């Protein structure tokens, strides 16, 4: 396997990050919008993961590495987040999660508890375990559903991925952003379509 | 092991703060008188133990979640596969292989059910397994190395083997391997056949080579076999291909594997052409990274790729990032069960560390470590630290380990080596729920064994989910991963940082947290040692600034006015931490509030801030570890719910980590409180206090070499890299006063006995012996009684033998100073004792044996004769002892320089050994009656002693510390008694215990038989010729480590079973010894395991429980089987099954240590003996049940009491030559003698025995004999107490401690003679001069001493004159005034 030179790799970044053609993007985000408005949060959650993998890497790995999150275009991440917020009365979405995260001093155990991703065990000492996917998660939006419960980002491979998502520039001063049109106008050049990409959703808690 | 269990810190009971009124900071004169307590001990809330759920086993998972039953719409032939594996990673891969087969295959439909080997423990699961096998076509097994379970698998599969179409077993125990069959290919001849294929299994001693030669075979054989025509070769080829498919474990490979096997061997598919692809082969070993396009076989190529990564910044790619090596199992990578690996890689990279993750497909990782982590050109490590994520020993995995090979590779690599582990036998939730923590089998395999390689920090970083399919994979435990990675980077930083910038926090203890105990550690002169360490570090380039001129000045700096402190130590405050700061720095602070309220609390606090005591010298901080907080208050400890460290304790470690920003903490000496804080026994979780406290600071810990058990706890619970130090050299106790007179009288008797003065001298001997209170030890004739010459010899012989026994006891003299090896002459007594033991394994005969032989005697006969008091044997033994000492002294003198330090042993030795005629020992012996001693044997022995001497005086303690601080690998070595096991030397090694599955050894069993036989004989003599029906005894952790399981073997021999080693030499099974062979009834036992034993040897508790239950169920007459007899009675009385009644293995609840009787006695906080006994019962009645091992320790007080009530004798072992009954409080802490008397229906006091196997001539003495011996050699021996007095302040405390421990023996056993107190009183109180010295040197300890005398009298243990008592009372108020005067 030959490796592209560093410069080639750098070029590659550009081509990757700008590879989503507007129409494809729209149609893909449409699927998410569709699930969210149904509402079918379970499917929307799957779709979100699929999108993240697609946006972050070209690898056939089936999951995103923390270091690849930087490649997810700000605008795309915002579109996803906005969609979640829009269809959940601002209860779901990365930016919602980020606010909670900041409130708990960026402690992931505390965050997971707030988000309802961990459950208390019946032991003498207070302890928590991860909830099992998918049955122990809540797939409806009601009063009981904890704020920020969805979309899920699993801790199967630790917290660095989630950490990078929450630190993504897309969520810097996120509150003011209203729509998915960022500085790039959400329009990109590129030829690849989603269908060309291999992925296996392997993303569960 | 000075304080084996004197750290009784944790107990899950309920909180009762109101009881704290019981705790008195100030003890009054009559504190021993009955006090009103606000609680009835019997009505206290019972200690809550978590109820067992499900089957009581460690794992509740069910194989049903792994069962795949095909829909089989097309009515295809069904192939049923049953598999058993150790490695959970195969499940998801197999499941997905079968699912895709069922979706796409047109020739068969597959049913599959998988079992994790641990699940077969459950009876129902095992039944299901057997049922499943009945209609299975194919059986697959892999890595079945737990003997119990291997035998279960064997039994079940054997039955079906002929009917099964194929049986495939991959590396496992030979028993299981033999089940293999593929057509004509079979392994049933394994181990017997001469064919080269089987030869590879035969070489027993080849360690992990087994798996590796198998791998080699896998690589080469198919190519060869392909061209062989015969069916046999074809079948063998398919087996090898199968192994390749299996080791290449991806779903694709497994799919093809199943196609191949079913197509070739399932009859229903005969004639169907089933196509399969060849196995996709992966590298056997290499480098893997989740983002890399391929696996690498070359580290340079890997790093090239790393350098081109576009997802990470220049900093990480560049040359300045720390580099962490990771060791991974290939099977996790190829089966796709690698999320937990990815988590660690991501966490490290996110924290700025570069990773080199290497893997191997076999079980030997030493090759890959050398190949990929060491630069082939410079021979320098490519990494700064290494983390193994496999959990396994570096060489051998679960099979045969080769620790020397591992150590060799790791020495070459020379970086810190951490072995973290994923949960294997438990799900995440089961682990979290368990108070034990990690499953004991995993502890044995993945904690104890890696420790022998020098592996550190057994952090559980990955868990498992109980459910089916893909989700059964390992998943990261995010906080654990974080802990692991920050620690790995911290260790790496030690390798990278310069000495000048490195910050070191030296932590000293104040344990017990009495006044004036700051800076105490077993056998160690702490401040002198610190001083010597700092001097050395300074010279080495560390920035140590403002160091005072002397060690004394250093103490003065840290503890102002150390001698005058009475109520509050006047420690130097290094830092005041505001509550807000404390809370910010200490995320777990809220968890401490349940016990200690809101910060700052009273301890280490000025009411507003938390105080950190200590002083900073440049980049070195010397700090005082806060006390546990409960010490003066054992009742509170008993009643408080979940104990926890107090805020001051937490603040100390927050300061060290986050304000001082230590690069490493150095805990100084044996031992502190951190590692005994509440939490799981092994495998800490996020809420375990030792883990939270130590945070991310690398922990280096100076630990006494003779205490491997507690050192192991420090390693496992506080992630310490332990560095052993030498205990002070021992001296012989010698004789004094009347005893010395006696010895002179005896010698004149020997020369004059036939001169007619014999009777006269014997009369003097008898009266002097009486004055010395020897009448309890030797039956003395009435004074004036005429006795025959023969009887006279016997009386004198017996007294003589007693005197010699006292004279030759070992006393440790003084305290050790790090960096100061003992002087030559100081090593003599140690060498004499080393020389006294036969070492057949080294071909070394003992010196006494050689000497005895030279005069035509057998040393064992001499010992026996001397024990009986045969005068000429006693005399001969004394001559042998003298000659031994002389010969060894003359040898040592020759290796000594002018200063008396041993130098250049090697050179001197060569010159000595070069000229036979000059051999100093020969010169010496030529002047004795032993001049004919065998020269060759002597030469061998002295060569061995020369090696030992070299090791005794070697000074590696400072060197190893510096290595640890420079981020190098510290060579591991066993802890233990240097006399028994000179491999303990030289000190300065990372102490480890032993492979728990290796004990008891055959040699230990031999020694155990001797002791048990002597014990039983002794008891018969004292008990009208009757065998004891039950013996209550104690198992200590250190004892069993030092003796390789002697006391464990004693228990087995009492009940008449023998351990059976499996084919890998591990002891996991026992079998009954026939009554004929035993030659006596099976004796029932009540086994009280120390908390440390429980922590280290839970599998052995399991083994014992199985043994007891097995014996109780033997169909034997009850008068020949007391275990059965009692179990039947108890079962009837309690209305339970015999098996349950046969519960004999007890200890504390998990996470709790000691009976606390010692604390109560030390603090005089007890009313009557009944209260102490209640404490004992409530703390110690937790049983281990081999039928529900997962339940951990369960309270079974009723059975405990009933079992104890049958005891005719109590029994303990002494484990080392330098520590005896009154040196430490834990021996009486675990003594149940008086308790048994109370429980027995006839109220009879059981006999109490102490075995002493520390010297060549093993002895079983009664407890009272041992107490007397101890009093004579220590408390009453001028050599001892003057030695103590010479160390000043501390010495008075030591004297007081002996007396307090003696009272402890009175309280628990009543086996202390009146004269012991009387003599002590005349030695320390009636002697005005002594009294004044004691009082002025340490008034506080002196007050306690006086109080203890009064207490002994008040509690009825000491009868004496009113005069004596009046004097003591008067003294008490005097010293009280003095102290008050000083205080105010």
TrEMBL record, chain B:
Keywords assigned: ATP-binding, Chlorophyll biosynthesis, Ligase, Nucleotide-binding, Photosynthesis
Pfam annotation, one family: CobN-Mg_chel
A single Gene Ontology CC term: chloroplast
Parts forming coiled coils: none
GO molecular function, one term: magnesium chelatase activity
Record keyword ATP-binding present: yes
Domain of life: Eukaryota
Pathway membership: Porphyrin-containing compound metabolism
Biological process terms in GO annotation: chlorophyll biosynthetic process; photosynthesis
The EC number(s) this enzyme carries: 6.6.1.1
Listed InterPro entries: BchH, CobN/Mg_chltase, Mg_chelatase_H_N
Enzyme class: ligase
Residue ranges constituting the Magnesium chelatase subunit H N-terminal domain according to the UniProt record: 80-240
NCBIfam families: BchH (TIGR02025), PRK12493.1 (NF009140)
PANTHER family reported in the protein's UniProt record: MAGNESIUM-CHELATASE SUBUNIT CHLH, CHLOROPLASTIC
Family of the protein in this entry: Belongs to the Mg-chelatase subunit H family.
Designated name of the protein: magnesium chelatase
Gene source species: Hibiscus syriacus
């Amino acid at each position: 396997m030959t490796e592209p030179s560093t410069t080639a790799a750098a070029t590659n970044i550009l081509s990757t990050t700008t590879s989503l053609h507007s129409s494809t993007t729209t149609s893909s985000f449409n699927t998410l919008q569709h699930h969210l408005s149904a509402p079918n949060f379970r499917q929307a959650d799957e779709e979100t993961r699929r999108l993240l993998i697609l946006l972050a890497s070209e690898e056939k790995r089936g999951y995103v590495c923390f270091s690849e999150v930087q490649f997810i275009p700000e605008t795309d991440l915002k579109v996803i987040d906005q969609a979640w917020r829009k269809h959940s009365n601002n209860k779901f979405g990365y930016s919602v999660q980020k606010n909670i995260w900041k409130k708990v001093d960026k402690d992931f155990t505390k965050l997971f508890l707030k988000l309802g991703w961990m459950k208390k065990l019946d032991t003498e000492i207070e302890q928590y375990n991860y909830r099992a996917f998918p049955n122990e998660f809540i797939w409806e939006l009601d009063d009981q559903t904890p704020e920020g419960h969805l979309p899920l980002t699993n801790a199967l491979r630790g917290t660095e991925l989630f950490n990078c998502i929450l630190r993504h520039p897309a969520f810097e001063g996120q509150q003011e952003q209203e729509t998915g049109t960022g500085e790039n106008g959400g329009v990109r050049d590129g030829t690849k379509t989603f269908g060309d990409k291999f992925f296996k959703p392997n993303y569960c808690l | 092991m000075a304080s084996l269990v004197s750290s009784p810190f944790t107990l899950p009971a309920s909180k009762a703060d109101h009881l704290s009124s019981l705790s008195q900071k100030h003890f009054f004169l009559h504190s021993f008188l009955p006090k009103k307590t606000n609680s009835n001990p019997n009505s206290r809330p019972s200690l809550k133990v978590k109820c067992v759920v499900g089957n009581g086993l460690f794992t509740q998972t069910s194989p049903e979640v792994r069962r795949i039953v095909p829909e089989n719409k097309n009515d295809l032939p069904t192939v049923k596969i049953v598999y058993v594996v150790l490695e959970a990673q195969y499940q998801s891969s197999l499941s997905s292989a079968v699912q895709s087969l069922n979706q796409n295959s047109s020739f068969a439909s597959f049913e599959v059910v998988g079992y994790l080997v641990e699940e077969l423990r459950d009876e129902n699961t095992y039944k299901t397994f057997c049922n499943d096998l009945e209609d299975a076509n194919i059986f697959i097994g892999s890595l079945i190395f737990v003997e119990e379970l291997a035998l279960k698998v064997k039994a079940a599969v054997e039955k079906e083997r002929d009917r099964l179409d194929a049986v495939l077993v991959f590396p496992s125990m030979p028993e299981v391997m033999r089940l293999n069959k593929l057509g004509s290919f079979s392994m049933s001849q394994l181990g017997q056949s001469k064919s080269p294929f089987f030869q590879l299994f035969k070489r027993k001693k080849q360690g992990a080579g087994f798996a590796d030669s198998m791998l080699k075979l896998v690589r080469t054989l198919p190519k060869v076999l392909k061209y062989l025509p015969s069916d046999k070769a074809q079948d063998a080829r398919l087996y090898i291909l199968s192994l390749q498919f299996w080791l290449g474990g991806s779903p694709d490979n497994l799919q093809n594997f199943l196609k191949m096997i079913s197509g070739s061997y399932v009859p229903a598919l005969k004639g169907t052409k089933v196509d399969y692809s060849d196995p996709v082969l992966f590298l056997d070993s290499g480098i893997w990274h989740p983002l890399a396009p391929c696996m690498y076989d070359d580290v340079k190529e890997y790093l090239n790729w790393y350098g081109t990564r576009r997802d990470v910044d220049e900093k990480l790619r560049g040359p300045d990032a720390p580099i962490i090596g990771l060791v991974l199992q290939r099977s996790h990578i190829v089966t796709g069960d690698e999320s937990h690996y990815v988590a660690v890689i991501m966490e490290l990279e996110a924290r700025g560390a570069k990773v080199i993750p290497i893997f191997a497909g076999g079980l030997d990782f030493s090759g890959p470590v050398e190949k990929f982590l060491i630069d082939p050109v410079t021979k320098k490590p490519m990494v700064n630290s290494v983390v193994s994520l496999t959990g396994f020993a570096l060489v051998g995995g679960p099979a045969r380990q080769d620790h020397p090979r591992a150590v060799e590779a790791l020495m070459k690599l020379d970086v810190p080596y951490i072995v973290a582990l994923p949960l294997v036998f438990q799900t995440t939730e089961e682990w979290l729920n368990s108070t034990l923590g990690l499953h004991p089998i995993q502890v044995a395999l993945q904690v104890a064994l890696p420790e022998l390689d020098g592996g550190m920090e057994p952090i559980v970083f990955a868990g498992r989910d109980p459910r089916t399919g893909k989700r059964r994979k390992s998943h990261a435990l995010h906080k654990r991963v974080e802990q692991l990675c920050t620690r790995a980077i911290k260790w790496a930083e030690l390798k990278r940082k310069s000495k000048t910038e490195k910050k070191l926090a030296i932590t000293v203890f104040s344990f017990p947290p009495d006044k004036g105990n700051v800076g105490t550690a077993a056998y160690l002169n702490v401040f002198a040692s610190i001083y010597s360490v700092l001097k050395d570090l300074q010279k080495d380039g560390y920035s140590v600034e403002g160091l005072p001129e002397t060690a004394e000045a250093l103490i003065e700096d840290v503890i102002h006015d150390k001698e005058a402190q009475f109520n509050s130590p006047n420690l130097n405050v290094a830092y005041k931490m505001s509550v807000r700061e404390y809370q910010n720095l200490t995320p777990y602070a809220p968890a401490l509030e349940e016990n200690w309220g809101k910060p700052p609390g009273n301890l280490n606090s000025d009411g507003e801030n938390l105080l950190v005591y200590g002083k900073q010298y440049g980049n070195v901080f010397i700090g005082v570890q806060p006390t546990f907080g409960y010490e003066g208050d054992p009742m509170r400890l008993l009643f408080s719910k979940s104990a926890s460290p107090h805020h001051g304790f937490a603040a100390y470690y927050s300061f060290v980590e986050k304000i001082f920003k230590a690069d490493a903490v150095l805990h100084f000496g044996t031992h502190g409180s951190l590692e005994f804080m509440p939490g799981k026994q092994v495998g800490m979780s996020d809420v375990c206090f030792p883990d939270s406290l130590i945070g991310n600071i690398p922990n280096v810990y100076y630990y006494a070499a003779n205490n491997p058990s507690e050192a192991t706890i420090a390693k496992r619970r506080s992630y310490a890299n332990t560095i052993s130090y030498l205990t002070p050299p021992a001296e012989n106790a010698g004789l004094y006063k009347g005893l010395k007179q006696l010895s002179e009288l005896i010698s004149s008797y020997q020369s004059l006995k036939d001169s007619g003065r014999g009777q006269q001298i014997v009369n003097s001997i008898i009266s002097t012996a009486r004055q010395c209170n020897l009448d309890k030890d030797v039956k003395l004739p009435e004074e004036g009684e005429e006795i025959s010459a023969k009887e006279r010899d016997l009386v004198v012989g017996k007294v003589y033998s007693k005197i010699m026994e006292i004279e030759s006891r070992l006393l440790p003299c003084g305290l050790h100073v790090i960096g100061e090896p003992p002087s030559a002459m100081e090593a003599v007594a140690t060498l004499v004792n080393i020389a006294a033991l036969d070492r057949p394994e080294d071909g070394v005969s003992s010196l006494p044996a050689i000497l005895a032989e030279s005069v035509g005697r057998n040393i064992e006969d001499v010992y026996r004769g001397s024990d009986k008091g045969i005068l000429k044997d006693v005399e001969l033994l004394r001559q042998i002892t003298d000659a031994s000492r002389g010969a060894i002294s003359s040898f040592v003198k020759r290796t000594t320089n002018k200063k008396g330090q041993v130098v250049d042993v090697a050179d001197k030795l060569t010159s000595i050994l070069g000229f036979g005629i000059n051999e100093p020992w020969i010169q010496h012996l030529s002047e004795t009656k032993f001049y004919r001693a065998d020269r060759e044997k002597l030469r061998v022995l002295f060569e061995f002693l020369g090696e030992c001497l070299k090791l005794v005086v070697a000074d590696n303690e400072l060197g190893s510390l510096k290595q640890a601080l420079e981020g190098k690998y510290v060579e591991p070595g066993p802890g233990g008694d240097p006399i028994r096991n000179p491999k303990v030397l030289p000190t300065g090694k990372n102490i480890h215990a032993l492979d728990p599955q290796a004990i008891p050894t055959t040699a230990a069993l031999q020694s155990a038989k001797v002791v048990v036989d002597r014990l039983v004989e002794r008891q018969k003599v004292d008990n009208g010729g009757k065998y004891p029906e039950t013996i209550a005894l104690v198992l200590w952790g250190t004892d069993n480590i030092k003796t390789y399981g002697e006391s464990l073997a004693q228990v087995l021999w009492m009940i008449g079973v023998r351990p059976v080693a499996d084919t890998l030499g591990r002891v996991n099974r026992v079998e009954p010894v026939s009554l004929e062979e035993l030659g006596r009834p099976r004796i029932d036992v009540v086994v009280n395991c120390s908390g440390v034993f429980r922590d280290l040897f839970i599998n052995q508790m399991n083994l014992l429980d199985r043994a007891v239950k097995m014996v109780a169920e033997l169909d034997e007459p009850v008068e020949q089987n007391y275990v059965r007899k009692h179990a039947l009675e108890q079962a009837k009385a309690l209305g339970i099954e015999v098996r349950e009644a046969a519960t004999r293995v007890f200890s504390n609840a998990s996470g709790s240590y000691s009976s606390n009787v010692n604390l109560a006695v030390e603090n005089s906080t007890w009313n009557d003996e009944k209260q102490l006994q209640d404490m004992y019962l409530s703390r110690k009645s937790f049983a281990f049940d081999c039928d529900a091992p997962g339940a951990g320790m369960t309270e079974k007080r009723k059975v405990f009491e009933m079992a104890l009530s049958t005891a005719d004798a109590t029994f303990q072992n002494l484990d080392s030559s330098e520590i005896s009954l009154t040196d430490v409080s834990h021996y009486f802490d675990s003594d149940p003698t008086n308790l048994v008397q109370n429980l027995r229906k006839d109220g009879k006091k059981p006999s109490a025995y102490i075995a002493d196997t520390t010297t060549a001539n093993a002895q079983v003495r009664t407890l009272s004999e041992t107490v007397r011996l101890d009093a004579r050699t220590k408390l009453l021996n001028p050599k001892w107490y003057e030695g103590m007095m010479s160390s000043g302040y501390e010495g008075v405390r030591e004297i007081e401690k002996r007396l307090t421990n003696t009272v402890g023996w009175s309280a628990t056993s009543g086996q202390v003679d009146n004269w012991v107190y009387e003599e002590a009183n005349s030695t320390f109180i009636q002697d005005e001069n002594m009294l004044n010295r004691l009082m002025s040197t340490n008034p506080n300890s002196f007050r306690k001493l006086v109080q203890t005398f009064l207490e002994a009298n008040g509690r009825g243990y000491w009868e004496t004159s009113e005069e004596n008592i009046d004097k003591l009372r008067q003294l008490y108020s005097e010293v009280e005034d003095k102290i008050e005067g000083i205080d105010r």
